[in-house]
Hints:
Two copies of one chain form a homodimer.
Chain A: E1 10-15, H1 23-37, E2 42-46, H2 61-73, E3 79-82, E4 108-111, H3 116-124, E5 129-132, H4 144-157, E6 172-177, H5 178-186, E7 196-203, H6 207-219, E8 228-235, H7 248-259, E9 263-266, E10 278-279
Parallel strand pairs in A: 1-2, 1-3, 3-4, 4-5, 6-7, 7-8, 8-9
Antiparallel strand pairs in A: 5-10
Helix pairs in contact in A: 1-4, 3-5, 5-6, 6-7
Amino acid sequence: MTKARRKATRNIAIVAPACALKPDAAARVAALAEANFSDAGAALHFHPQCFLSEGHFAGSDEARSAAFLEVANDPAFDAVWFARGGYGSARLDDAIYARLNAAARRKVYMGYSDLGFVLGRLYADGIGTPVHGPMPADINRAGGETAIARALRYLVQGDQADVEPAARGGAKVAAFNLTILVHLIASGRAPNFSAHIVMIEEVSEHHYRIDRALAAVMSSPNMRDAAGLMLGRCSDIPENDPPFLKTEEEIARRWCARAGVPYLGRADIGHDVENKIVPFGAPALVA
Amino acid sequence: MTKARRKATRNIAIVAPACALKPDAAARVAALAEANFSDAGAALHFHPQCFLSEGHFAGSDEARSAAFLEVANDPAFDAVWFARGGYGSARLDDAIYARLNAAARRKVYMGYSDLGFVLGRLYADGIGTPVHGPMPADINRAGGETAIARALRYLVQGDQADVEPAARGGAKVAAFNLTILVHLIASGRAPNFSAHIVMIEEVSEHHYRIDRALAAVMSSPNMRDAAGLMLGRCSDIPENDPPFLKTEEEIARRWCARAGVPYLGRADIGHDVENKIVPFGAPALVA
């Protein structure tokens, strides 16, 4: 009797460096993974830290730092999937980054929004493959299953179909929430974006704040030799008073022109269920 | 017949690198100066650019840049007083800073909030005496005459009584709105705060944003060798959901401890009529 060959297990650890994940959201993501990706080998491991609560955060800074370090360094896991954004990633213990081991350096790390602090820092340190992409908490959005399935196709099957098109062209890329990028650069821990296409997206910030943030980013030495900027979706923009008179794309074009960095058009990323996958760096060449 | 000796005229030019000043606010500030400071030699010159309007801004970037450069470089003026904050200072033409002349280098420049972009950059470039202090638009606050009179006592009479106490102790100081400081540092144009006491204040930002901004500032290489941080008032803080559980002072103490920079207590600055005067750098020694 022959046995159907089953794909190797892809163990994905889920931790929450920022805000807590609701248990029912985790259950829905687990059910979706079981129903559609178990044949492909998906095995999701929700670290209990995801469900801790301490004020704004998914547990204390110590608990969040320890959980991240634990799963990153554990050779049993192939990927670390960040549970939810909000705020908190910048508060992880600085010392953990120097303690990431060889197993941590082989992993994929996926998230977006506040997690840009971790993704950017890992990338600056050359650790693993940071990936901008959907998070488990996206299950709470209307149509969120689409985003979760997209993330799992990439994490479990290595499917490149939902990788943002500009991230498939051979150029080095990185993607960030704009406000997080400003803070990451100010902290002195941002990568140097020389020769990179940098994609940004924003949510719930006024036009004047988008302009102010782009002023800072595009004036930064980190962006001086960037290959270009791409503008993701800017959603839920509060009304400016007085009217700002410029769209977010006009704002981006203006700051790119002023900085002498090419504006390369719209990126298919944002705080929504259409948010596409952006693996940082240059795509691996297929042998 | 002897003539009463009249003080030398102190010519103060008022321009608006950010948002426009209302003509009636200018009229009230002019009347206050005439009534109480004309004997002391005060002569206020409101540049017509203050009253221009282009969407969010007091005229185009070109108009605001040109007006600032004009009054800064004019030897007839002793001081440049910024009219109002909001947003726009970061959009001034970069090239004007290199065109500031010898007259510009002898002047006092006063403002706060968004004007931190200009004050910080002038200070980084060693041009004149940037001063954090009230602006003409403060006349619109309840009790705003107090703030205007304080500014004029300093600008016209050189009165040191309303200089923030920590700025009178001999240490080098600088003062900023926290959000503006994050953006200034990210832009690569912030001063190095080595051996400086840095005062910060904030308005209308959630506790999580104050924490996030302090994370960036206190992690920045610009702050590595600072003599200390002082926390001004953080006003109109929107309610955090979930509750942040820490006060702004606890937040400041935490990030100072983590950065190894002394927390030196509260500073008497803020977005209010009590906002005190902070001349950047070390106080001039009295001969």
